[in-house]
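ARCHIVE CARD
Drawer: 12
Card no.: 0347
Subject: one protein chain, sequence and derived structure
Cross-reference: see card 0346
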Amino acid sequence: MLVSYVASRASVPERPAMWKELRDRGAVISSSWIDEAGAGETLCFKELWHRINTEIFISDQLVLYVEPEDFPLKGALVEVGMALGLGKPVIIVAPGVDVVSHDMKPLGSWAKHPGVRFENCVRKALGLPGSFSDNT
């Protein structure tokens, strides 16, 4: 079974909710941040980042989900860098984001890294069976 670390804006309540729902539907998601994404729920950020490092290390891939209003990205970019540094593939799902081809704005040139690819649907990126008619 494919183990995925998922990255997105934690401060947008719909994002952790989306990941939890996909986990409930069978996706194997290693990201523990989705269970403590509310304001004040993370007690120790130093411990969180240690966990994030471990969770990315044990995962087969990282899936980054981003929508146009999610920029600028913060922690998700660090997570992507950690995954690429560990040789993990990174899959970007970016519905509605207009990526300028040469410099890949608003993502950045890192999106042209050979370990990065784009997918149009989160379920497909996570390896879940079923219909891929919408972004999830």
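Annotation on reverse: The chain has a mean pLDDT of 93. The CA atoms of residues 14 and 20 lie 10 Å apart.
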